[in-house]
Design brief:
This protein has 14 helices and 17 strands. The protein has three domains: about 150 residues, Rossmann fold (3-Layer(aba) Sandwich), CATH 3.40.50; about 160 residues, Dihydrodipicolinate Reductase, domain 2 (2-Layer Sandwich), CATH 3.30.360; about 80 residues, Alpha-Beta Plaits (2-Layer Sandwich). By secondary structure, it is an alpha/beta fold. Strands 7, 8, 9, 10, 11, 12, 13, 14, 15, 16 and 17 form an eleven-stranded mixed beta sheet that branches. The protein has a six-stranded parallel beta sheet with strand order 3-2-1-4-5-6, sandwiched between helices. A hairpin with a 3-residue loop joins strand 11 and strand 12. It binds nicotinamide-adenine-dinucleotide (NAD), L-homoserine and sodium ion (NA). Sodium ion (NA) binds next to helix 6. InterPro entries: ACT-like_dom_sf (IPR045865), ACT_dom (IPR002912), Asp/hSer_DH_NAD-bd (IPR005106), HDH (IPR016204), HDH_cat (IPR001342), HDH_CS (IPR019811), NAD(P)-bd_dom_sf (IPR036291).
């Protein structure tokens, strides 16, 4: 059969990995696809020392790839929102299929990209965009297609999990571990995307659309990163029987969809609490299947390439199918473009239990004042730890609360911070309490 001709744009970590996997496993891939998948052209500004691209046509202008009539599929691996958007839209306008690892692009411009692709009848595949090599998009979109999804929760940023794991297990500093994650090619070009939860929110936005059939709504995701997690909170959480993980959570409730990314206390025995280093894991609760868990490498050259090449295989197999009968981009053939069936809930309406840590002056009555503020907001306390201190010194008070509405917790924290007995700000880490006993 005629080969599928691919143009790779961007030859960095993922581009290099994709080229190497495609060439190294070419025979196996051709047997699976029923036809060879060959790299016809590479659009890259720089060489990648890990790739030998001898014999492959190379251009510095990635838009040349989008215009090359020989190319069937453009693989976008340059990253970012702007140039990548123009490149993908041009490729689609020229009737090319697109494979991308770019979650920022899909989360922010996906609705428009899918509309343009549907009009042209081309595929846009993005398995590598969420949780790197884990085939979670395929699992959710196809494997769980019978289910009403109730919630999903995942560790979906490899860099962040790498940092939290090394801080906890090796006592290393935040900055030192981040530098290592960058050297290993895990981090985004701007690592604040990893640290401040933006990358995880991009991925969660995509997962929520596939799980619930709503349009991509990145601007409505609540996003909080890991930059304020300290060694002390990691230790206190450990004492209480928890591990701190950075989770993306989306859940269907009677009031709408929760869509939130933040550090979370997870009981140590939960599988998600035992996912370390650059590994990602996503737990999905379906009404028929119950809980399922998807685990693997969330970043890195070849794990991510594994997902890019799997998408190329899908394209190679489906290329001649009438596009109306292909698996829809976001799983549902009718995505309600107004999102008014399941609105995204404001964070203030969401209820969680919380870990609170405050620094208080150790004098009589402090605990009572703290407890009164919480009680006035209707927040009940599950546990309190207060360390011994000499009179007048600052001591940490650790509280675990029962579930409370975010709005009330915000008000309680505001009042606690205003107490003269309390120094600095109150640390709040929400507790994961999704029920996976199906
Ligand atoms: N690194 C990972 O583990 C990983 C995992 C999953 C998804 N991703 C996504 O994959 C994409 C690529 O990430 P990466 O880690 O390979 O980045 P990278 O920085 O290693 O590679 C990007 C390459 O694109 C090139 N490039 C950028 N703009 C260009 C332009 N206008 N013209 C020509 N070349 C251009 C850069 O020179 C660079 O070589 C991003 O969208 C990222 O979010 C990365
Ligand atoms: N920077 C991302 C790459 C994978 O999407 C991460 O660390 O998870
Ligand atoms: Na994936």
């Amino acid at each position: 059969m005629k080969p599928v001709k691919v143009g790779i744009c961007g030859l960095g970590t993922v581009g290099g990995g994709t080229f190497n996997v495609l060439t190294r496993n070419a025979d196996e891939i051709a047997r699976r696809a029923g036809r060879p998948i060959i790299v016809e052209q590479i659009g890259a500004r720089r060489d990648n020392p890990d790739c030998d691209i001898t014999g492959v046509s190379r251009t510095h202008d990635i838009f040349e790839v989008a215009r090359n009539p020989e190319i069937d599929v453009l693989v976008e691996l340059i990253g970012g929102y702007d140039v990548a958007y123009e490149l993908v839209m041009e490729a689609i306008a020229n009737g090319k299929h697109v494979v991308t690892a770019n979650k920022a692009l899909i989360a922010v411009h996906g609705n428009e990209i899918f509309r343009a692709a549907a009009e042209k009848g081309v595929m846009v595949a993005f398995e590598a965009a969420v949780a790197g090599g884990i085939p979670v998009i395929k699992s959710l979109r196809e494997g769980l297609g019978a289910n009403r999804i109730q919630w999903l929760a995942g560790i979906i940023n490899g860099t962040g999990n790498f940092i939290l794991s090394a801080m906890r297990d090796e006592g290393r500093s935040f900055d030192d571990v981040l530098a290592e994650a960058q050297a290993l090619g895990y981090a985004e070009a701007d690592p604040t995307f990893d640290i401040e939860g933006i990358d995880a929110a991009h991925k969660l936005t995509i997962l929520a659309s596939i799980a619930f059939g709503v349009p991509l709504q990145f601007d409505k995701a609540y996003t909080e990163g890991i930059s304020r997690i300290t060694a002390e909170d990691i230790e206190q959480a450990d004492n209480l029987g928890y591990v701190i993980k950075h989770l993306g959570i989306t859940r269907a409730t009677g009031k709408g969809l929760e869509l939130r990314v933040h550090p979370t206390l997870i009981p140590k025995e939960r599988l998600l609490a035992n996912v370390h280093g650059v590994k990602n894991a996503i737990e999905v609760m379906g009404d028929a299947v119950g809980p399922t868990l998807y685990y693997g490498a969330g970043a890195g050259a070849e794990p991510t390439a594994s997902a890019v090449v799997a998408d190329l295989l899908d394209v190679a197999r489906d290329i001649s199918t009438d596009h109306r009968y292909r698996v829809p981009y976001l799983a549902f053939s009718e995505v309600n473009q107004h999102g008014d069936t399941l609105p995204i809930m404001p964070m203030e309406d969401i209820e969680t239990a919380c870990y609170l840590r405050l620094q208080a002056v150790d004098r009589p009555g402090v605990l009572a004042r703290v407890a009164t503020i919480l009680a006035e907001q209707g927040i009940s306390i599950e546990a309190i730890i207060q360390k011994e201190a000499t009179e007048g010194e600052l001591v940490p008070i650790i509280l675990l609360t029962h579930r409370a509405r975010e709005l009330h917790m915000n008000e309680a924290i505001r009042q606690l911070e205003a107490l003269v007995d309390v120094a600095g700000s109150v640390v709040r880490i929400r507790v994961e309490d999704l029920d996976d006993n199906a």
